[in-house]
Amino acid sequence: MKCDRDRRRVRRPWWSGGTILLSAISGMAAAKGPERARADLVATIRHDIHQAAPAADDVELAKALAAVAMVPRERFVPPEYRRYAYASELSLPIGYDQTISDPYVVALMTATAHVPVGGNVLDVGTGSGYQAAVLGRIAARVTSVEIVAPLAAQAGERLASLGYRNVTVRAGDGYAGAPDAAPFDAIVVAAGSDAVPQPLLDQLKIGGRLVMPVGAT
Known about the structure:
single chain, alpha/beta, five-stranded parallel β-sheet, 7 helices, 7 strands
């Protein structure tokens, strides 16, 4: 399985016009501290989602955004890209031909998963660990699976250093899930597929939710 995290994007990024806008983002980020940048990020995501789909601005979105507000995204991107860490619709390279998904998509997928407070969650496609960290702010237990072994090792160390004791990262085929940690209240999958892998369905609790891109993107 190739974890192409760009497939998580739900709409064309507004920043794709070129480097001038990226420079402006860099300048704005430099003028703010991380806490202010996170607060502004949360406000931007909520505004954009409310504009696109008012009904989606609900208790689940509020719960997801509260988690996003607590995660230092700058710690999950390479140093050379940290000035762009809080651009709401900007995915960034993390090495090994992979990217960290943009915060808008992470918030939207987390909200859609209806992660129960204190629940058991599977995160497929760890990347740098950002989605797992957001989930870990809600769930009691998060198992995150990454196909690229060096990324899995890095993410595990990063999450441990940030105090995420309830998140476990393992290297392997995420489409096979983590049967030893199942059943899951929610499963969030970074990589798209033509169909939902049966092992993931088998590991989902009755009434649980699985969120992933399916079909052509």
